Amino acid sequence: MEEDYDVLLLTLFEIEKKYKKLLKKKISLSVEESEKDREQTSDIYQYLMQNREKILDAEVYEDYILMHELREELNLENILKSKSRIKSFSNFVRKNATPLISVIGKKTSPYSIFQLEKPEKLTIKPKIDEKYDFWDIRRDKKLESEILTYGDLMSLEKQVEEKLLNKEMRKSELEKLLSSIELEVLSKMTSEKKLIAVSDGDKICFCKPSSEEGAVMSSSLLLSSKKEEDE
Amino acid sequence: MENNNTDKEQKLSPLITDKERQELFRELTTILTRRWIKDNVEVFGVSQQDLLIVTRVDIATLEHILEEYQAFISILGLELVYYKIGVETWLCLKSNYFAPPELNEAELTVLGVIIGLRESEKKITTKKIKEFLTSNDYLKEYLVNESIRSLTYKGYIRKKSNFIDYNYRTLLEFDEDERIKIKEEYEKL
Questions:
Q1: Range of the domain at B46
Q2: Most buried of A15, B16, B58, B140, CB within 10 angstroms?
Q3: Which domain of life does the protein's organism represent (chain B) (predicted)?
Q4: Selected residue with higher pLDDT from A199 and A96
């Protein structure tokens, strides 16, 4: 339909052009040919008069449809294109990552809780089983006890008596003066009444027992030697 | 190459027994995969200085240990990486293969735009990022703001005198080649 319409218009245009050219060049055309063109023009006119309105209407409607389609396309493009574009962009970023690794669990902890002990501040606390430690340390060592002869004992008693008889001294002084074994001998001597220790305030006085001694209050004193052993 | 490895093992062997090495590797994995908050930013792993204190070894021994550890974890597709926080050197573990990072779609978009802009110019502002994303109706302004905040907290970006710059995590998780690819994709938007 549209093609016919174009052909007709083209024919009209060609006829019009032909006559304009001939008139300009002042060339006369035969009556026969002129009549033939006139008939053709008349037919075209008749056809156009019948169909023009239909064709035009159809064309306008077609344009309406095309316009509608174009509008829809543009609208969809505006709505969807930016969304789909940005989604594919974010996926592209996602695909190109080599992420850091962390364990599953509570996501984060403040770094301040990670208090590290500096080596100089390190303190060694005793283990709960100290008895085990004691034997563990001494496993390879021999435990020896000193056996005293009677002669040794007598000389030790004499030694203690020389150091202490008729002397006053504080407990700390006594601990520094006598060794462990001498303290043991002192303990033995006082229990056997070979030497009497009398407390005078914070000082202790040693003397020989006398026959006039009456009833006295007896008490005990714990001593531990702090005397430095000679190598 | 094999000889070199044997040499290293021989150097280490008098110092650390197999049992101690196993224990040390387990402890290293635990500490290198921890995540902390330091100055309101997430950080991964441990600082080199703290690692020296914990292991109580000298730097040379620690380096040998870490080299051995690196070979051990590469079997699992992991990599030991170093990064800087201020003047401190930190260590953590990273995937050797591409895998999704823990970012949502909006955060990935904002990070992608930041990478796209930052690869072509040094100084980028928040305003510029917002303008690009909101004027094209890609994201709402509040979502851009939220994503920038989240990316800062997660250690991907940081503000440096009013300009946005990469933080350690972007540089670790997106190598230079990947950043250029992202820039090219950004330019197509």
A1: 2-95
A2: B16
A3: Archaea
A4: A96
